[in-house]
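Example 371, ligand uridine-diphosphate-N-acetylglucosamine.
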Amino acid sequence: MRGTVLITGGAGFIGSHVASELLKAGYQVRVLDSLVTQVHGDTPSRPAYLHKDAELMLGDVRNPDVVDEALAGVDAVYHFVALVGVGQSMYEIAEYTSVNNLGTAVLLERLVKHPVSKLIVASSMSVYGEGLYLTPSGVPYAAANRTTTQLKAHEWEMTTADGTPLRPVPTPESKQPSLASVYALSKYDQEQMCLMVGKAYGVPTVALRFFNAYGPYQSLSNPYTGVLAIFASRLMNGKRPIIFEDGQQLRDFVSVYDVAQACRLALEVEAARDLTFNVGSGHFVTVREIAIKLAQVLGKNLEPEITGKYRVGDIRHCFPDISLGQRVLGYKPKIALEAGMRDLAEWLERQTAHDRFNEMREQLASRGLVM
Ligand code: UD1
């Protein structure tokens, strides 16, 4: 037995994989989760995918009494509770701020009273906004952004203000954040609050910035999740994936098993304290390629449909430099995209997915967030 770990939000996609990874490594795991209906359905119950040896405590992280109870006898904490829809965060502003920011604040206040040996907080690539770009002469260009005029003219690629093309390169943790949604703001707030309070009270803290994690148990019914789940739901319902812009956007899709590995290392490696790490696969791929690969592994003859429409606030290119995690954590992504997608497909074939793409598009369109 290697100690007891609390995972807030541990009934979710990534948290549940971390629970399994830790149980396999000999830890005891307690999960605190309120099983929100957007993820767990209208009559939420303990998810079948949650490892049977994980103790599940139902409750809200904003309730200090619940947090005290959850922290009893705990040696380390993963804080994964968060509402995760970027678009949705732009109209459910109070709820996002309450769950994500206030939830973290309550947890930290209680942690001051129950210090632990490690605190790990889930952050997101979304804090970067656009990834890092270089000018043709190799100078980092911090202000990469696209104007509405450019987007309306279908000028998708990033340029300097005078129209010089920019080259996307792997984004290091040192890139200045550029917060473009209430969600991204709340993730930055969560990570900085944990690092700051951790430092003040001597609790070694690690913030992990996840890139596009995929794998079994990702929510297929939540219309606000990432692109891969949305494409999967459409393909499984015999519909073509719908691509915004031209499909050449670059992302790093990282297997959730590799994410779980990084999470375990963040707990176990002593040198990992008061630090922030990117968590990705170290490879990038276009959104169009992902749609095609997913159709292939699912055996569906459905070409993606490229609409030339765009979503307000979408990022053109962002993929991580993972060398800091490789060096400090000894993190080594093991699952190549092809193998990870096949594993995902195997699980998908046993699921029913509700295609809620139109719901997502209508919600955003009614607020002028999709053009
Ligand atoms: C996503 C998550 C973000 C998370 C990050 C890392 C959302 C909305 N975004 O960011 O919270 O931090 O991964 O895990 O959940 N696209 C299509 N068709 C679709 C949906 C999306 O073409 O049906 C395109 C988008 O325009 C975008 C790309 O796919 O260019 C990626 O979209 P998405 O996964 O939603 O957002 P990320 O920016 O990757």
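Summary: Residues 84-87, 124-126, 210-213, 224-227, 230, 242-245, 249, 251, 287, 311, 314-315, 357 surround uridine-diphosphate-N-acetylglucosamine (CB under 6 Å).
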